[in-house]
Structures are given as structure tokens and as C-alpha cells.
Write a structure and sequence with these properties.
Strand content of chain B: 5-15%
CATH architecture of the largest domain in chain B: 3-Layer(aba) Sandwich
Biased composition (Basic and acidic residues) (chain A): 1-21, 33-43, 52-73, 85-110, 125-136, 167-187
Strand order of the largest sheet of chain B: 3-6-9-10
CATH class of the largest domain in chain A: Alpha Beta
Mean pLDDT of chain A: 67
Strand content of chain A: 5-15%
CATH superfamily of the largest domain in chain B: Translation initiation factor eif-2b, domain 2
Low-confidence stretches of chain B: 16-44, 72-81, 83-87
Subcellular location (chain A): Cytoplasm, Cytosol
Biased composition (Polar residues) (chain A): 146-155
Structural class of chain B: alpha/beta
Number of helices of chain B: 10
Shape of chain B: globular
GO molecular function (chain A): guanyl-nucleotide exchange factor activity; translation initiation factor activity
Largest interface: A-B, 57 and 60 residues
Organism (chain A): Cryptolaemus montrouzieri
Oligomer: heterodimer
């Protein structure tokens, strides 16, 4: 399972990087084209076209330049999913696409009005040969003519060098390339000199955590995702929000995912030969792959998607599409309502009973659930104080502080290193969770485990609040096996001082800032877990998981 | 002679609390003759002896870092957690190892420390304070510096060290404390006596003024020190060698005269 994931991610990386480079190059040379695309996307957003094949037809008319790119991608994706030799096809397609780009560029610049249909009529090998010629011609043309682009040439050539050599020196591209895939995918970021690729430099990863460096979140930029035709704009937007971390917290991420899902269901029209649910499933698969690339999915999202897919298979296939849509949307809405909203309320009622007057409650970072609980308890006239513990580099605690002080709760704010200073005065520790694992470990924002540890050393009760939809079947005993790496640069920023950090040039040295996003808290540090079902010990996660599917 | 030495050291200990080595030594020289007069012993010999002692002590202090560095790290003040196979810079010549440095958010000594280590070509990673527990499972050894070693073997160290030590305990990782003898103090501290024991720095470091209106409603604490109970410390290393924290009382009686405990 783990291996599969890894492989998957590797593939993703190839795809992502390749795409990025290509796209960037293209974008550099041809800013206008992206503008076209952007405009196109806006059109789509404003006037959502449900059926993707249709959209491609449309785009053909709108922007003649990107026709091929667009028409080819669906094929590629389908084949990528369904065929066993997914790497091969992907790569060959990648090459093709790259060449396509070059070709379109060449066309534009040299005013060579070679017909598009020509190429399409030819066999694959012929196509390739032709494109290679074109590519050559285009490169020469680039070098000679077009003074405007001459600035860009050195850069783009450097970036190209690696893939180009491989594609030219071999006649049988797909097979040979396939054998080279692992090497290339690792080398290419090092070789190419774009600033983005630099981030992937092997030397600056913590060896211990090499397995965690899945692609580069930064490599997904808005321009790149504009050109993903098979994904609903709502999902594209979502992906960007995830990768730039504008949407944080597993609840928020899950809800935004589900609302994007309703948009998708509403806008989707299946092709006549395919059943709606099956089609939706495949589209959803694409979208979730894309999201996964932007940022690894939260457990809450995975659970929600899994349940939704289950629902897809159970739905009656004989009713008309509109009814199906209606049902699915209803399902998503009730999911949000039951699993997130109502559960949150139930938990806050349960915690309310546990808060007594005069309590000093310590909480860590920002959890939507915890803030909800505290605000509600405050409105119901409980008297308590809150200590918000925070840590760099995310400083989410400030958001929590804002929410709590807004309603007038008395707050104290400390950094995580001052825990020992305040812990003796605390009466309860309330923590949010990202997920609860089957072995009773609590996965949460980094630092949670440390808070629980210090609380235990001072014999303070630790309550973890978690809706049951965040329970996961995964098992993990330490924080490093599966985790997420945040932006290392954020560690270097010190917002309170103007002095430059002593290691601004860390990329050249042996220094590595490491910023992991989650950690797991062992069950012996947690007194109890508050769920909407009951207040449970950590170890009852498997029990809850077992009764859950039947319940829904 | 021994007594004088003790007085000097006692004096030094007092001054060390005021911090600043060079200046304190200077004060020491000027302050001492008065003390000696109280003992009403032969003054002539004493003065030269005293000066000899002081210069000796001075050189000792100067070389102490080197001495400790021979055994261990060069950095005593920083809040470092180090997963080392062996000691730091000196050891780096002989062995290869990785170092993880905790940044210690309110003062960021960790950043300096890491930059220094990286300069001497040691593989270094910087982690935020929050990630200590997560990383601890992979750490072989924790090496920390301290501000003061208390009489019971506990530490008064940079804030955050308590959590580091607890995490180390949780994962059964040995905690090595590097401290020079002058950091020993005969003071005992009860576990939760934070008020007299601690100092608070400017809260602006953790909640910048730019947060504006929020500041009015919130209490912000930014303590400098952390108390680490002796049971969390595995080993104390000074320039004279390693000792367990339970042996501190003995070192104290060697260093200081009991009458001088209270000043």
C-alpha cells in the first residue's frame, strides 16, 4: 500500500514537473496564449459547461492555438488510468504534448501554415518524426529571428536540454524513455536551472524524511492548473487554495471539498454512452488525483470521498440523471450537516459538561471545533480563562486568539516553549485533532504531542475533541512515517525582528530547515477523546470504526 | 588557601548570576580584597596569592570552553537538541553525524547555532519548537546547554528545554547537559516556583505589535527560563568530566564554602 502510494507519487511528480517545465517555458515565450486560456477559464467559470468533451469542442473554436493540447489530454488521462502501462503512455503523451507545444510555437513564429489536420492523419511515428523536424526548425528560427524572445532562449534551452537530448537521441521513444524514467525524474530537477527546480535539490532534504518529499507544492502554480481541462474549475480553485494553504484545518478542507463536489455534480453532464454515476466517478478520480498533487488529502477528505463513492455505487441506475444529481447533492449536504455541523454541536455539548466555572483551559494552535466549543460555553455563561499555545511557523494560534477575544473570552497567549511556565496553573487541556488512527494515536498539528506530554508531566487532563468522521483506518506509531512537509522557507522568517536570518543562503550549505506539519500523540498521553457519540478512551477508535459504516 | 579559592569561586558564582564574564572578573578583582579583610588573615601574602589564583582561574575559565569542547559541544548557551553519535565540532573531524537544532522561537539562538554548525560542515536541520516530540523518536542523544545548574541537579535552562527533556524521557533518549562549574548554584527550587525563578522577556517577540487591537485583550507571556527537574537529566558534563546530576551537591561543597551559600 505504502509502495503503491510512493509509486503513485513518483508518477505524479514526473507528470507535474514535466508539465510545469513545459508550461512555464511555453508561458514565458507566449504569454498571450495563457491569457487566452485564462479568458477561456473565466468563460467556463462564468458559464459552466458541464460536459468536458463539449468544452473541448468549444475551446477549439475559441483559441485555435491550444486545440491539440486540449483534445489530447482526455485521451491521455483515460489511458493513463486504464492501461497497465500508464507510465509509458503518459510519457509518450508527454513528449507528444511537448512537441505539440513547440510546434504551435513554431507555427506562430515562422508563419508556417502547415495544416493541423495533416499531422493528425499520420501515424504516431510519423507524427513524431515530423514534430521533431519542426522542433529543430523552430529552435533555429528562435535563435536567428525573433529578437524579442532571444532573451528567453538561454534559459529555456537549459531547461529543455535534458528531455530534448533523450527525445532526439532515440528513435523508439516510449520504451526507452520508460526504462529511464526513474533516473530522469530524479535528475531533471537538479539539472535544470529554474529556481523552482532548485527547491528539490537532494542535498537540502533531511535524509531521514526523504520519503516525505512528494513533489513540490510550489510547483503548482495558477498558470499550470489553468490548462487542466478535465477538472472542474471549482476543483482547480480548491487545489490552489489547498496548496497555498489559504484553506487550512481538516474541517474547512473537507467542507470546501464537499461544496466543490456539489458544484461538480450540478454542472456535470454525462456522455450518452456512459452511465452518469460511472462517469462522475471517473471525473472525480481525476479531480482527487489533482487535489492530491496540490496537497496530500486530509483524512477527513478521504473519508468523505470514500463514503461518497460508496453512495455512487449504491444509487439506483434506472432513474433519470437529474434525480441522481438531486440525490447525490442531498447526500453531500446531509453529510456536511450530520458529520461536521451536528457532530460539532454534540461535542461542544459534551465538553460543556466538563468545563467547570473557574477553569483555566489550555488549547493549542487553531481548531475550528475547539473555538466553537469555547465560544459556545462562554455564551452559556461558563466562567473560564483560556491559554492559547502557539508555535511557529504557522502561528495559527493567533487566529484562535482572534476568534476567542472577539466574543470576550479572557485569553493568554504563549509560545509552545513557555508551556512549563503556565502548565501548573492550567486545569484542563483541550486539543483538536486532524485524525484519530486505529491504534489510538492522535494525528494533529505539530506540537500537539508536546503539549500533551507536558500536560501529563503536570498531571493535567488532556481532552482531544474529534468528530468521528475523522477516524481513520490507518495505523501509525511515529510522526515521521507519514507526514507532510511544509514550506521550509517559512521557518526562516522572523516576524518580530528585522534582522536577516543567519542562514538565508541555506540552499547552498548543509543546513536544512525542516517543517513538518503533523505529529502523532501516543494514546497514553491522552486522557479521553470527545466524539459526538460519547467520551471515549483513544483505544476505542476501532470500535467506532466498526460500527460506523452500518450506521450510515 | 582553599578557603580563599572557595570565596573566589563563591564570588564568581554570585557575579555569574549577573552575567557577563569579562566584566565580572574585573569586578571580582576589585571586590575581593574587602572580603579578605573580613577573614583578617595576613594580607601581604594573600594579595599576591589571590592574584595568582585569580589569573589561574581566569585562564581556567578561558580554556574551559575548549575543555568542554574537547569532550563536547562548543555551544553552551544555545537551546540545541542534537542527535549526535558523538560530540560536536571536535568530533566532526572524526565522525560523521547529523544534528537537529531546535530554533527556540523567542530568541532564535537555534538559528545562529545551526548556521554555525553548517559552516563547519555538519549536516544540520532546523526544526520549530513544536516538532521536538515528532523528531525525538529518531534522535540518539540530546545535548543541551543551561543557564544554571541548581543544587538538586535540576536545571534553569532556556524555556522549551523542559519539553525537550520530557520528550527525550518519553523516548528514553539520554540528555546530556553541558555546563561549566561556575554555573553551579547552591539554590534549591521547588518544582513550580516559577515567579522568583523566572524572568519574562518582551512579549513583542511572540506577538508582534503589528497584531494591533488584539494586544489589548490578551495577556502574553514570554518567559526566558524553564525548570528542568533532575530526573530528566542523564549527565552533566563540565570541564572536569561527566557527572550524574545527583552528584551536584558534592561538587557544590567542593566549590563553595557552606557559609557563603547565603549572601
Amino acid at each position: 500500500m505504502q509502495m503503491d502510494k510512493k509509486n503513485q507519487s513518483k508518477e505524479d511528480k514526473v507528470g507535474a514537473d514535466g508539465l510545469t517545465k513545459k508550461e512555464r517555458r511555453a508561458l514565458k515565450v507566449q504569454g498571450r496564449q495563457t491569457d487566452d486560456n485564462k479568458a477561456e477559464l473565466k468563460n467556463i467559470k462564468a458559464n459552466p459547461r458541464p460536459n468536458y468533451p463539449e468544452k473541448n469542442e468549444l475551446s477549439k473554436k475559441d483559441s485555435g492555438i491550444s486545440i491539440k493540447e486540449k483534445t489530447q489530454i482526455p485521451d491521455e488521462i483515460i489511458s493513463g488510468i486504464e492501461q497497465k502501462s500508464s507510465i509509458e503512455s503518459k510519457l509518450s503523451d508527454k513528449e507528444k504534448r511537448k512537441l505539440e507545444w513547440e510546434k504551435t510555437l513554431a507555427e506562430k513564429k515562422n508563419q508556417l501554415n502547415k495544416s493541423d489536420s495533416d499531422a493528425q492523419g499520420l501515424s504516431k511515428a510519423e507524427q513524431k518524426a515530423k514534430r521533431r523536424e519542426l522542433q529543430e526548425a523552430q529552435r533555429l528560427a528562435k535563435l536567428k529571428s525573433d529578437p524579442q524572445n532571444s532573451k528567453n532562449i538561454p534559459k529555456s534551452n537549459e531547461g529543455k536540454a535534458n528531455p530534448k537530448i533523450t527525445s532526439e537521441s532515440r528513435s523508439e521513444i516510449p520504451r526507452q524513455v520508460k526504462s529511464k524514467v526513474p533516473n530522469e525524474s530524479k535528475k531533471s530537477p537538479n539539472v535544470s536551472k529554474t529556481p523552482l527546480a532548485k527547491k528539490c535539490l537532494h542535498g537540502n532534504k533531511v535524509k531521514l524524511l526523504n520519503h516525505l518529499y512528494i513533489g513540490d507544492s510550489k510547483s503548482f502554480e495558477f498558470e499550470d492548473s489553468v490548462c487542466l481541462p478535465n477538472i472542474h474549475p471549482a476543483f482547480i480553485q480548491l487545489g490552489i487554495q489547498y496548496s497555498t494553504k489559504t484553506i487550512m484545518g481538516s474541517n474547512a478542507r473537507c467542507i470546501s471539498l464537499l461544496s466543490a463536489l456539489t458544484h461538480l455534480i450540478r454542472d456535470l453532464r454525462s456522455p450518452p454512452e456512459q452511465e452518469f454515476c460511472r462517469f462522475l466517478e471517473s471525473v472525480l478520480q481525476n479531480s482527487s488525483d489533482y487535489l492530491q498533487k496540490c496537497r496530500p488529502m486530509a483524512v477527513s477528505m478521504i473519508n468523505a470521498l470514500r463514503l461518497f463513492k460508496l453512495q455512487l455505487t449504491q444509487i439506483d441506475t434506472n432513474i433519470p440523471d437529474d434525480d441522481k444529481k438531486q440525490k447525490l447533492i442531498e447526500f453531500v449536504d446531509t453529510y456536511i450537516k450530520d458529520q461536521v455541523m451536528t457532530a460539532g454541536k454534540a461535542i461542544s455539548m459534551k465538553v460543556f459538561d466538563k468545563i467547570s466555572n473557574g477553569d483555566i483551559i489550555l488549547t493549542y494552535s487553531c481548531s475550528s471545533l475547539i473555538s466553537q466549543i469555547l465560544v459556545e460555553a462562554f455564551h452559556r455563561k461558563k466562567q473560564f480563562k483560556v491559554i492559547v499555545v502557539d508555535s511557529r511557523p504557522l502561528c495559527e494560534g493567533r487566529e484562535m486568539l482572534r476568534r476567542l477575544t472577539q466574543v470576550g473570552i479572557e485569553c493568554t497567549y504563549i509560545f509552545i516553549n513557555a508551556l512549563g511556565y503556565v502548565m501548573s496553573t492550567v486545569t484542563k487541556v483541550l486539543l483538536g485533532a486532524h485524525a484519530l488512527l486505529t491504534n489510538g494515536y492522535v494525528m494533529s498539528r505539530t506540537g500537539t504531542a508536546q503539549v500533551a506530554l507536558v500536560a501529563q508531566a503536570h498531571n493535567k487532563p488532556v481532552l482531544v475533541c474529534c468528530e468521528t468522521y475523522k477516524f481513520s483506518e490507518r495505523v501509525q506509531t511515529d510522526s515521521l512515517v507519514y507526514n507532510e512537509i511544509g514550506d521550509p522557507d517559512s521557518l526562516l522568517k522572523i516576524d518580530s525582528s528585522d534582522k536577516p536570518s543567519p542562514f538565508n543562503s541555506w540552499r547552498e550549505s548543509k543546513l536544512t530547515p525542516l517543517n513538518i506539519l503533523y505529529d502523532v500523540t501516543p494514546p497514553d498521553l491522552v486522557t479521553a477523546v470527545v466524539t459526538e457519540l460519547a467520551i471515549l478512551p483513544c483505544t476505542s477508535v476501532p470500535v467506532v470504526l466498526r460500527i460506523k459504516p452500518t450506521e450510515i | 588557601m582553599r578557603r580563599i579559592l572557595k570565596i573566589i569561586r563563591e564570588e564568581y558564582e554570585v557575579v555569574s548570576k549577573r552575567r557577563g564574564d569579562d566584566q565580572s572578573l574585573h569586578q571580582l578583582v576589585t571586590a575581593n580584597p574587602d572580603d579578605v579583610l573580613d577573614y583578617s588573615e595576613k594580607l601581604l601574602n594573600l594579595r599576591t596569592d589571590l592574584l595568582d589564583q585569580l589569573t589561574e582561574y581566569e585562564t581556567e575559565l578561558e580554556t574551559s570552553i575548549e575543555n568542554i569542547a574537547n569532550q563536547a559541544s562548543e555551544h553552551i548557551h544555545t537551546n540545541e537538541i542534537i542527535l549526535t553519535v558523538e560530540f560536536l565540532k571536535c568530533a566532526a573531524k572524526k565522525r560523521t553525524f547529523q544534528v537537529i537544532v531546535v530554533e527556540s522561537s523567542q530568541v532564535y539562538y537555534g538559528h545562529l547555532m545551526a548556521a554555525n554548525l553548517a559552516k563547519s560542515n555538519i549536516e544540520t536541520s532546523v526544526i520549530p519548537d513544536a516538532a521536538v516530540f515528532a523528531m525525538m523518536s529518531r534522535v540518539n542523544k540530546v545535548i543541551i546547554g543551561t543557564n544554571t545548574v541548581l543544587a538538586n541537579g535540576g536545571l534553569r535552562a532556556l524555556s522549551g528545554v523542559h519539553a525537550v527533556a520530557l520528550a527525550a524521557k518519553h523516548y528514553s533518549v539520554p540528555v546530556v547537559v553541558l555546563a561549566h562549574m561556575y554555573k553551579l548554584t547552591p539554590i534549591h527550587v521547588a518544582y513550580h516556583e516559577q515567579v522568583n525563578f523566572n524572568e519574562c522577556a518582551s512579549p513583542a517577540n511572540i506577538l508582534p505589535y503589528s497584531t494591533g487591537a488584539l494586544l489589548n485583550k490578551v495577556k502574553v507571556y514570554n518567559p526566558i527560563f524553564d525548570y528542568v527537574p533532575p530526573e530528566l537529566v542523564t549527565l552533566l558534563i563540565s570541564h572536569q568530566g561527566g557527572n550524574s546530576p545527583s552528584y551536584v551537591y558534592r561538587m557544590l561543597s567542593e566549590l563553595y564554602h557552606p557559609e557563603d551559600y547565603e549572601i
